[in-house]
Write a structure and sequence with these properties.
The chain is of the alpha+beta class and 209 residues long. It is 52% helix and 8% strand. It contains 9 helices and 4 strands; from the N terminus they run βαβαββααααααα. It has a 4-stranded mixed β-sheet, covered by helices on one side. The longest helix has 25 residues, at 125-149. It is globular and about 45 Å long. The protein starts with a strand and ends in a 6-residue tail after the last helix.
Length: 209
């Protein structure tokens, strides 16, 4: 059986939990990380020397990095509706996944870790302000992309892996208290469409930011 290591309220773990629920896969979970067992102990570092969550264990295979795990699970389950086999269609999905990883990481540290949670070293006022401004810009970019395409999801007519990382940062945008949210109708509509998915409600829009 699959085993997922990482606390269920962690950002990167929740993305994997969302996909596991979408796929209906059985798994075991162990809570590791802040507030639970420390990831700095030898047993955990033997699996992931970086000491980060999530870690997925599938028999002899051990994987880290949430987006790698998402791709692996989709391919493992032949879920081509989530990650297409055709190169062009797959690239349209993965470009959004990589965009979130590269362009939202620092804004989220400023806006969320610093601005919402007050965690050092991200709680520097300048860094918080920059994070919030950058976050707003990225959300406006998603809004514009959805409005321009006229499609319900980021990679087309159907829900795909593109919508898991992006859907989470959109949820966090609508959940944060300290940000000014200009009207973005396409983004708001997208959030509500995602909210019709039981797995999204169970692991993302579940009362946690």
């Amino acid at each position: 059986m699959l085993k997922l290591l990482g606390r269920s309220n962690a950002y990167n773990v929740r993305k994997v939990l969302w996909l596991l629920a979408e796929l209906g896969l059985p798994f075991e979970q162990e809570d590791w990380g802040r507030g639970h067992r420390p990831t700095s102990v030898p047993d955990f570092l033997a699996l992931n020397p970086l000491g980060t969550v999530p870690v997925l264990v599938d028999g002899e295979l051990v994987l880290r990095e949430s987006h790698v795990i998402l791709r692996y699970l989709a391919v493992r389950e032949a879920a081509t509706h989530l990650l297409p086999e055709a190169p062009a269609a797959r690239a349209r999905v993965e470009q959004w996944m990589d965009w979130v990883a590269y362009d939202l990481t620092l804004p989220m540290k400023g806006a969320y870790l610093g601005g919402e949670l007050g965690l050092a070293p991200w709680n520097n006022p300048w860094f918080i302000a920059q994070g919030r401004a950058e976050y707003a810009l990225r959300m406006a970019q998603i809004d514009a992309a959805l409005a321009a395409s006229g499609l319900p999801y980021l990679a087309g007519e159907a829900f795909t892996l593109a919508d898991i990382p992006a859907g989470f940062v959109v949820h966090r945008w609508f959940s944060m208290r300290g940000v000014e949210r200009p009207e973005m109708p396409a983004l708001a509509g997208y959030y509500e469409r995602l909210s019709q998915r039981p797995a999204f409600l169970a692991h993302i829009r579940n009362g946690l930011p």
